[in-house]
């Protein structure tokens, strides 16, 4: 199955842009070292320069993410910026083991074919109506968000199936309707999963950082109740509407050119149900029940994920044998999560967090008398941070200073932490979420089409969904009564 590669001029322009941004970030870090602000000690300036360059490299994609994190570990230790227990604190976080378990579960879902069956059983039953096709793709992602706790794994699993479906429906490679199907896949894979605690990296970083820095244990059901109605269900409708409006087929256009039918991936829904799929379905059902009832038994989502992952690895179960474990369970995401949490720990330990929080408190003018305005300010701050760092960097930077933000805003600690979800669930540019970029590359979608989809979805989210979120939070008691604005 062919994919469309980016034009050479587009790749060159992207590379030049990244280089310019990286040079500017490096110059800013050098200025911070040479001429730090008057109130910033030299040691803090060194930590700030390292954190600035690290986040800059992650944001621009100038090097692979896991390599950036390893370089951060190296310089943080050789420059004695923080003790080893601080720098490597991400490896002891529950988020690390939540991701590990999720990677093993994702490998099992992929190897057994259960994920392809679920996807194919839904998309294989839709007609040629473009609205139904996009709705089915989004529904598949919402279902897999509960079963496959890795956005990248869901994207990699679904893109070939969606491309096969596009060819079967006669949508040409590079056509707007085919691109819309790809964008519906990658947007719903990430955006809808921000409301399911173990379903993507920013959620996991938030969980680990909240436990490490604030002693707050996020519960699966409480998190789901707070975010799913608006950030998953209503946002799915927004994604559907934007994609259908922007990418619907045009009569007589290239989208209607006849294509060779290829139903590979879709037809897997109709093969016989294997014993391995049955065992995995039972395990996933058990995991969902334990995640949903964590307020009753007190077992954190990380340990449920790890436990299910271990069962998948057991020889007697053999859902992920050793060769599949080596091939499918990558160490890169684990290092990345540990590094992001480690960056947050260094920010807190070096005093950068306190310094940054004082600046932010002055800039945002938070007030305990206007909780709704405070919620809007905190959410907007998280959105802005998401534009200059990858989305997992948002909780890594904000959670360590959440205590100061709470004192100034008058909100509860839970509300301050949860406001970050409103920020990293609003994606203005494709580069903010690596799985979105990966899916666009696999599907041959241009940056222009990707930007149309992300920016329109983000705009409607800010104008319509965030006010609805505030109403929902008020009903659940996360916003105090009284004067809101």
Low-confidence stretches: 1-6, 256-266
As a whole number of angstroms, the C-alpha radius of gyration is 22 Å
Would you list the SSEs in sequence order as H and E?
HHHHHHHHHHHHHHHHHHHHHHH
Total helical elements? 23
Number of strands: 0
End-to-end CA span:
54 Å
User: What would the principal axes of the Cα set say about the shape?
Assistant: globular
Assign the structural class, choosing from mainly alpha, mainly beta, alpha/beta, alpha+beta, or little secondary structure: mainly alpha
Largest sheet: none
The average pLDDT value, as a whole number, equals 80
- β content, as a range? under 5%
Helix content: over 70%
Task: Give an overview of the whole structure.
The chain is mainly alpha-helical. Among the domains are: 14-63; 92-332, no CATH class. It has helices spanning 8-34, 42-60, 65-78, 84-87, 94-112, 114-123, 130-147, 151-168, 176-191, 201-214, 220-247, 275-292, 294-297, 301-313, 322-328, 332-349, 352-364, 371-388, 393-398, 402-409, 413-424, 434-443, 447-476. The longest helix has 30 residues, at 447-476. Mean pLDDT is 80; it is low at 1-6 and 256-266.
Describe how the helices and strands are arranged:
Elements: H1 8-34, H2 42-60, H3 65-78, H4 84-87, H5 94-112, H6 114-123, H7 130-147, H8 151-168, H9 176-191, H10 201-214, H11 220-247, H12 275-292, H13 294-297, H14 301-313, H15 322-328, H16 332-349, H17 352-364, H18 371-388, H19 393-398, H20 402-409, H21 413-424, H22 434-443, H23 447-476
Helix pairs in contact: 1-2, 2-3, 3-16, 5-10, 5-12, 5-14, 5-16, 6-7, 6-8, 7-8, 7-9, 7-11, 8-9, 8-22, 9-11, 9-22, 9-23, 10-16, 10-21, 11-23, 12-14, 18-21
């Amino acid at each position: 199955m062919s994919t469309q590669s980016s034009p050479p001029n587009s790749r060159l322009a992207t590379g030049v842009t990244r280089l310019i941004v990286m040079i500017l970030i490096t110059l800013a870090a050098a200025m911070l070292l040479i001429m730090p602000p008057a109130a910033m000690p030299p040691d803090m300036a060194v930590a700030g320069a390292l954190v600035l360059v690290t986040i800059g490299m992650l944001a621009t994609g100038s090097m692979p993410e896991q390599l950036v994190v390893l370089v951060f570990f190296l310089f943080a230790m050789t420059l004695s910026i923080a003790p080893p227990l601080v720098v490597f604190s991400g490896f002891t976080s529950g988020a690390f083991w939540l991701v590990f378990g999720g990677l093993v579960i994702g490998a099992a879902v992929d190897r057994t074919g259960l994920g392809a069956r679920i996807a194919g059983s839904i998309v294989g039953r839709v007609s040629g109506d473009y609205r139904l096709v996009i709705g089915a793709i989004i529904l598949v992602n919402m279902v897999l968000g509960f079963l496959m706790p890795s956005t990248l794994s869901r994207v990699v699993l679904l893109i070939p199936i969606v491309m096969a479906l596009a060819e079967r429906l006669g949508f040409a490679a590079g056509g707007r309707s085919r691109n819309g199907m790809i964008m519906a896949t990658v947007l719903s894979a990430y955006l809808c999963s921000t409301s399911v605690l173990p379903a993507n990296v920013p959620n996991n970083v938030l969980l680990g950082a909240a436990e490490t820095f604030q002693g707050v244990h996020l519960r699966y059901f409480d998190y789901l109740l707070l975010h799913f109605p608006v950030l998953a269900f209503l946002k799915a409708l927004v994604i559907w509407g934007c994609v259908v409006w922007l990418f619907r087929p045009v009569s007589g256009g290239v989208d209607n050119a006849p294509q060779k039918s290829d139903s590979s991936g879709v037809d897997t829904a109709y093969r016989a149900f294997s014993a391995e799929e049955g065992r995995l379905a039972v395990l996933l059902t058990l995991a969902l029940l334990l995640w949903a009832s964590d307020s009753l038994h007190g077992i954190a989502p990380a340990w449920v994920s790890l436990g299910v992952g271990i069962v998948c690895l057991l020889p007697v179960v053999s859902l992920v044998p050793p060769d599949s474990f080596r091939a499918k369970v990558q160490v890169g995401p684990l290092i990345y999560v540990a590094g992001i949490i480690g960056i947050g720990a260094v920010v807190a330990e070096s005093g950068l967090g306190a310094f940054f929080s004082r600046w932010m408190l002055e800039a945002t003018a938070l007030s305990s008398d206007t909780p709704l305005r405070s919620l809007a300010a905190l959410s907007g701050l998280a959105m802005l941070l998401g534009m200059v760092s990858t989305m997992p960097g948002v909780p890594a930077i904000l959670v360590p200073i959440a205590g100061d933000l709470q004192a100034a805003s008058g909100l509860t600690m839970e509300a301050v932490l949860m406001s970050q979800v409103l920020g990293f669930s609003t994606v203005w540019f494709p580069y903010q979420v690596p799985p979105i970029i990966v899916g666009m590359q696999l599907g041959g979608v241009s940056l222009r089409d990707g930007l149309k989809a992300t920016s329109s979805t983000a705009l409607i989210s800010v104008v319509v969904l965030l006010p609805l979120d505030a109403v929902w939070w008020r009903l659940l008691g996360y916003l105090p009564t009284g004067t809101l604005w």
